[in-house]
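Standup notes, structure subgroup. Blocker cleared on the manganese (II) ion input:
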Amino acid sequence: MILSDYVKVSDEVRRAIEENKPVVALESTIISHGMPYPQNVETALNVEKIIRENGAIPATIAVIGGKICVGLTKDEIEYLGKKGLEVTKASRRDLPVILAMGEDGATTVATTMIGAAAAGIKVFATGGVGGVHRGAEKTMDISADLEELAMTDVMVVCAGCKSILDLGLTLEYLETKGVPVIGYKTDELPAFYTVHSGFSVDRRLDTPKDIAKTFAAKQACGLKGGMLVTNPIPEEFSMDKELIDRTIEEAVCEAEKLGIKGKKITPFLLDKIQKLTGGDSLKANIQLVYNNARLASQIAISYCGLNK
Ligand code: PSU
Ligand code: MN
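Run returned:
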């Protein structure tokens, strides 16, 4: 068995990569575990549309029937969205069994990076990445997303980190692993629902082209691994910091009380936050994903331009 036995790239995406056209990868855990049905499917399809309107080609990634599919059909997106939590959330350690057993899996940031890299895609847009959880000094709960960023050559465009994570420890971890954390038009790490976190990024860059050039330099020098591009939520959609902080605090306490751990914790907290805010956080979440899709498309176009 070789890699191509397990990876299926859609015709459209394969052709685009061969012709050096801009492609943006998208994850599927955000569909199955990150948002409720039907908003999850609606958002996933809109994100693809936004990427096309911005001149790039979308490649949503998921494991279907034991194959890492790069570029899904509308029906496949609908299928994952309807199945929701019933689909296995597949991070790096879950992938081998799912592939070998011919099962379905929703890809996290880590496994979407793996699929993107296998297909030759350099840019990936999502909402938020996993990181070092609060209390990780005891639980050792550190997302496999961070290790993937350390070793797999894909740029991840996100809206920073939610404070369900320990932002300071997440930044320290990324520094140790040599992952650049870029702020797009900001010196401050965005905190997903809000623009401000109080933590600094490594470097602010103000154009998609500078971001593309930075990643090209990293790769040319053989510095393995990805790059985190953090893009603040547009001001008009950002939430009240005090309200969201209080909500997250309540959700984290509830998870602790119920003894929720491991891969279940992130989906649990996302769902709880959505319920506690009466859907306001879901609205913000959707808008920041759209915003990241736009920036990722521009970066992908710039990156392709460097290879001409
Ligand atoms: N953060 C979000 N929304 C998400 C996730 C994280 O704001 O949907 C998902 C992503 O797929 C991410 C995963 O890769 O959760 C991280 O899970 P864990 O912490 O179990 O590695
Ligand atoms: Mn974890």
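Discussed briefly. The CA atoms of residues 67 and 130 lie 24 Å apart.
Next: hand off to the docking folks.
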